[in-house]
Specification:
Number of helices of chain B: 20
CATH class of chain A: Alpha Beta
Oligomer: heterodimer
Strand content of chain A: 15-25%
Low-confidence stretches of chain A: none
Order of helices and strands of chain A: HEEHEHHEHEHEHEHEH
Largest sheet of chain A: 8 strands, mixed
Structural class of chain A: alpha/beta
Mean pLDDT of chain A: 96
Shape of chain A: globular
Largest interface: A-B, 56 and 73 residues
Number of strands of chain A: 8
CATH superfamily of the largest domain in chain B: Pyruvate-ferredoxin oxidoreductase, PFOR, domain III
Structural class of chain B: alpha/beta
Mean pLDDT of chain B: 95
Strand order of the largest sheet of chain B: 6-5-4-1-3-2-14-7
Radius of gyration of chain A: 20 Å
CATH topology of the largest domain in chain B: Pyruvate-ferredoxin Oxidoreductase, domain 3
Largest sheet of chain B: 8 strands, mixed
CATH superfamily of chain A: Thiamin diphosphate (ThDP)-binding fold, Pyr/PP domains
Shape of chain B: globular
Helix content of chain A: 25-40%
Radius of gyration of chain B: 26 Å
Number of domains of chain A: 1
Number of helices of chain A: 9
Distance between the termini of chain A: 67 Å
Distance between the termini of chain B: 41 Å
Strand order of the largest sheet of chain A: 2-1-3-4-6-5-8-7
CATH architecture of the largest domain in chain B: 3-Layer(aba) Sandwich
């Protein structure tokens, strides 16, 4: 059965043959199909880069905005219409580099959105420069002596911020990736899914085979509500743990605490202007 | 010490940050207005929380007043050093009212008019120095024949949230001050001759923040994202205060970049969003404004200007960000820039901004400044009944095209979750569906489509307002917050050959702008900046330049008496 999220139009996909993005979009579609969603209410927000083109190839509402800025956009969409299911999806450079500040504050705010990050440890669209997640020593046309900065570890940062859901997947495993995305979307609150992927054109180090050898799944004995354990898993460097590393259901959800919804559940677009209320406010300025 | 009879008294109260000047200003303006006096107030303050020297000017008058004046009729120092910055404004016409030992001795020695108010002793009787502002509230209430009960009620109401003991202390302090103030009203000592009008008691008392805020609510604003920055923060606070009662989502963003992107997200999902910032914060938002241009999103941007460059003078005023706003954002796309000069304009323009933004799917700027936002005065009723209830959104059908090419360039705007179509907005160049394209023909038609909206916007330009004779020889031209200073300056001058032309929409410019300028023999531009940004724009648009410039860029606003002096000397040269 083909997915309802399969685009109806002819598309000319801009990705390289063999790109991990093909597996990720497959996983995203599989996840959406498994969920009981109204397709008219599924919204994707993306930034700039090859990963950010994903919504173009899905039959969804999307706002493909600026580099790094998808999280504020996604947060506001959710806060404006809480009936929408909102996903912010982009690459490692967009989410962790250009959008690093928003990444931190989206986690703190905890809107009920899902944040899917394609992490291939390299900049693809600009042809092979280092990304925030590139390993030390990774040589590129710009980092000619190799990357000297500590790689950004999105999972440990998210857990340090007491994020509400932190998962990691590997694009090579579509089925498991889809399951992690399903859990993330079902989770109430901000959910990060960092997806390790290969870049066939510009990353000759972190290849499909390399990821196969450097990842493993958390087993059933792992308790994702244990923050200390989650942090220990997140900072492991030899092999990357895959699965749901951390769940914290305690944090209040951003849009649920907004005063605008205290006495009115309706999405903002359905609300009119309360003339009586405006008159009363005006009257309060008489004295 | 006798007050010269006058129907317009300018009071300056000067103190330190932390002495409660804002409370005093807030209370006295309300008390005076409720007593039937026309009233105006504006504060000026340093960028600090304690110490330094801040002041507030309150004008009490028998006619409408809406501008600060250089002239000071009553000067009230409430701490040591309060007079230092006012040497050029305290004259022999000024009455100094206060504690003798904080009045600089030379004023006493040189025979300046002085009335002693034993502030320390009176504050002590009320419970301590912390009550100095309430004592002075009482003194000035007493001096201006305010009913004691009215004053006490207002003090009680103002502090109604505070603990009862403190409120009682405040009322007691105001009462002690009141007795001291009214005891000055003896024949030969002091008398105030300001007529009161009953109608004034029922008028609105608003500052620029209230005006733009109420206009925003009337325009349907229901989403505000902002990062605090003086002097624009007051508007963020206004909406936060009304978040619950008016259903506004208010969020303090992590930075201005987030704020503008949140606003665009909200508009995309059917909200009506406003962002508020000052020049420096706006500089960070400009990529987002370009995004609004590309995805054809409505956006309402309030910018409270302050002097730059960079951090500049954080709490002072200037009109130097017109060029920034006019030329910001890469690429070519239409925009509208509005600049209110009066409370009424602030209300109507903020509402109008939402109308234009939503109808034409463009960014609309409301350009104010510290002086505009902090100026407070009484106004007659604003017509709130004209609320903007018409939405320019459509229910989508499958096959919906967000960027459908139309005659006017405006495509029916759908939002996700309302109808069965897909709403695709893309910052890349896109086709009618919103899919990325590099097709040269589509690119060209999309550029033309976006720019066509400028032509449509030109049919809705707010014309400038002419004040004074139609058959003027000399035309003074200004925009935004200079309105009242320029208008009152002309009243002071009283020349029948000079008029004032005020623009509250500064872009796109009204077609008749050139005709107004052409008719003048002499053209003078007044702007709170150093390079005459608006004058340059007018010249570019109309071909008419200016013979004289009245520029001010020391961080302070124009005052009508000083503008009148400057105009007089310019015109004398001519005569």
């Amino acid at each position: 059965m083909s997915s309802v999220y399969e685009p109806e139009h002819e598309i000319d996909i801009a990705w390289c043959p063999g790109c991990g993005n093909f597996r990720i979009i497959e996983a995203v579609k599989a996840a959406l199909d498994q969920l009981d969603l109204d397709p008219d209410k599924v919204v994707f927000v993306s930034g700039i880069g090859q990963a950010a083109k994903t919504p173009q190839y899905l039959n969804v509402h999307y706002l493909n905005g600026l580099h790094g800025r998808s999280l504020p956009v996604a947060t506001a969409i959710k806060a404006t219409n809480r009936d929408l299911m909102v996903v912010a999806e982009s690459g490692d450079g967009c989410m962790y580099g250009e959008g690093g500040n928003h990444f931190i504050h989206a986690i703190r705010r905890n809107p009920d959105i899902t944040n899917i990050v394609h992490n291939n440890m390299v900049y693809g669209l600009t042809k092979g420069q280092a990304s925030p997640t590139s390993a030390r020593g990774f040589v590129t046309p710009v980092q000619t002596l190799g990357v000297s900065s500590e790689p950004f570890n999105p999972l440990s940062v998210a857990i340090a911020l007491n994020a509400s859901f932190v998962g990691r997947a590997f694009a090579g495993d579509v089925e498991q990736t889809a399951q992690i995305i399903v859990s993330a979307i079902n989770h109430k609150g901000y959910a990060l899914v960092d997806i390790l992927q290969n870049c066939v054109s510009f990353n000759k180090v972190n290849t499909y085979q390399w990821y196969k050898e450097h990842t493993y799944y958390l087993d059933e004995s792992y308790n994702p509500t244990d923050r200390d354990a989650a942090f220990s898993k997140a900072v492991e460097e030899d092999k990357f743990a895959l699965g749901i590393l951390y769940i914290n259901g305690q944090n209040p959800v951003f849009e649920e605490g907004l005063a605008a919804y205290a006495e009115n559940d309706t999405p903002l677009y359905m609300r009119g202007i309360d003339l009586d209320r405006i008159r009363a406010l005006m009257d309060s300025m008489r004295a | 010490m006798v007050f010269k009879p006058g129907d317009d008294i300018s009071i300056v109260i000067s103190g330190q940050a932390g002495q409660g000047l804002q409370t005093l200003e807030s209370l006295l303006t309300r008390i005076f207005k409720l007593s039937g006096y026309h009233v105006y107030s504006c504060s000026e303050f340093m960028s600090r929380i304690r110490g330094g020297n801040n002041s507030t000017q309150i004008r009490v008058s028998s006619r409408r007043v809406a501008s600060c004046t250089k002239r000071i009729d009553i000067f009230v120092p409430i701490h040591q050093g309060a007079m230092e910055r006012f040497h050029d404004r305290i004259t022999h016409e000024t009455v100094i009212l206060g504690q003798k030992d904080i009045v600089e001795s030379r004023y006493l020695e040189q025979g300046y008019a002085f009335i002693e108010i034993p502030l320390k002793e009176l504050s002590g009787r009320a419970g301590g120095a912390v009550y100095a502002n309430l004592i002075m509230t009482g003194v000035l209430s007493g001096l201006f024949y305010v009913e004691r009960q009215l004053m006490e009620d207002e003090v009680g109401r103002f502090f109604s949230g505070a603990d009862n003991k403190r409120t009682q202390g405040d009322i007691l302090a105001a009462g002690i001050g009141y007795e001291a103030g009214s005891s000055l009203l003896k024949p030969g000592q002091a008398s105030i001759a300001i007529e009161r009008a009953d109608d004034v008691r029922h008028e609105l008392l608003m500052n620029g923040i209230d005006a733009v805020g109420m206009g925003g609510l009337a325009g349907g604003c229901n989403f505000v994202s902002a990062y605090p920055m003086s002097p624009s923060t007051g508007l963020l606070v206004f909406f936060a205060r009304h978040a619950a009662d008016s259903g506004v989502v208010v969020e303090q963003a992590e930075d201005e970049i987030s704020a503008v992107n949140m606003a665009l997200g909200s508009w995309y999902a059917g909200g009506r969003a406003l962002i508020t910032t000052s020049g420096g914060g706006y500089a960070l938002m400009t990529e987002g404004v370009s995004l609004a241009g590309c995805i054809e999103s409505p956006l309402v941007i309030h910018i409270g200007q302050r002097p730059g460059p960079a951090t500049g003078l954080p709490t002072r005023t200037e009109q130097a960000d017109l060029n920034l706003v006019l030329y910001s954002g890469h690429g070519e796309f239409p925009r509208v820039i509005l600049a209110p000069g009066t409370i009424e304009q602030g209300f109507f323009l903020a509402r109008h901004a939402f109308y234009l933004a939503e109808k034409y799917q463009v960014p609309v700027f409301i350009l104010t400044d510290q002086h505009y936002l902090e100026s407070r005065y009484n106004v007659m009723d604003l017509d709130e009944s004209m609320v903007l209830d018409q939405r320019y959104i459509v229910k989508t059908e499958p096959g919906y095209k967000r960027y459908a090419l139309t005659q006017s360039g405006v495509s029916p705007r759908g939002i996700p979750g309302f109808g069965g179509g897909r709403v695709r907005a893309d910052s890349d160049e896109h086709d009618e569906h919103g899919f990325i394209t590099e097709d040269a023909g589509v690119r060209k038609s999309m550029v033309e489509k976006r720019l066509k909206k400028h032509d449509a916007l030109c049919d809705e330009i707010l014309p400038p307002v002419l004040i004074g004779p139609q058959d003027y020889q000399c035309l003074l031209v200004g925009w935004g917050s200079t309105f009242h200073a320029a208008k009152e300056a002309l009243e002071i001058l009283g020349r029948d050959d000079t008029a004032f032309l005020h623009f509250s929409q500064v872009y796109p410019l009204a077609r008749e702008a050139g005709q107004y300028l052409e008719r003048a023999k002499k053209r003078i531009i007044i702007e709170n900046n150093a390079t005459s940004q608006f004058g340059t724009l007018l010249r570019q648009y109309t071909g008419f330049g200016f013979d004289g410039r009245i520029m001010k860029f020391d961080g302070t606003p124009f005052m009508p008496d000083e503008v009148a002096d400057e105009l007089r000397s310019m015109l004398l040269k001519e005569d």
